[in-house]
Amino acid sequence: DAVKEMLEHMATTLAQGERIEIRGFGSFSLHYRAPRTGRNPKTGDKVDLEGKYVPHFKPGKELRDRANIYG
C-alpha cells in the first residue's frame, strides 16, 4: 500500500531528526519537551516525566487559507 509506505518513510525520516516539508500543505518536525512534573489523572499523585521528542505539524499558508474558507 503506497500510503502506508509513505507514512513509514516519513516516520523514519522524523526519527532521524530530519524535517519534512510538503509544499502547500505544511511541515513535520520534532520538538523537544523538557522534563517536568506531571500528575497521574487517576490518583492525583505527582509523576516525574522525562524529556522527550514529539512530532509537530505546522500547516502551510495555503492550507491555513483554505481552512479559513470553510471555518
Automatic annotation (TrEMBL):
Keywords assigned by UniProt, alphabetized: DNA recombination, DNA-binding, Transcription, Transcription regulation, Translation regulation
Region named Disordered: 33-53
Record carries keyword S-adenosyl-L-methionine: no
Bias type Basic and acidic residues, positions: 42-53
Superkingdom of origin organism: Bacteria
GO cellular component: chromosome; cytosol
PROSITE patterns for the chain: HISTONE_LIKE (PS00045)
Family (UniProt): Belongs to the bacterial histone-like protein family.
Assembly information from the UniProt record: Heterodimer of an alpha and a beta chain.
Protein name (record): Integration host factor subunit beta
Organism, as annotated: Enterobacter agglomerans (Erwinia herbicola)
